[in-house]
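Typical record was shown:
=====
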Amino acid sequence: MRIDEGEAISLARSASRVVVARGQKFVDYDMKKDAPDDALLAKGIVGPSGNLRAPTLKIGKTLIVGFHHDVYTEVLDS
């Protein structure tokens, strides 16, 4: 399933928390208090193909884009 940039932004805006993982780093956005603008959000969640990066998980109101072991452990254990 491919999700284009517009749909990816909408998906992220529907979450309360968006965690973007890339390599050994991650950024945790509180979408209620300090949501990034669309350009910054797209930079993290959209890949070079113009589609939502994989892997992507939506668990409750949390959206995780990319893989980071500590993030998965924290979200899945809660």
Summary: Residues 9 and 37 are 10 Å apart (CA to CA). The chain has one domain: 5-77. The chain is about 35% helix and 25% strand. Strands lie at 17-22, 25-30, 56-59, 62-65.
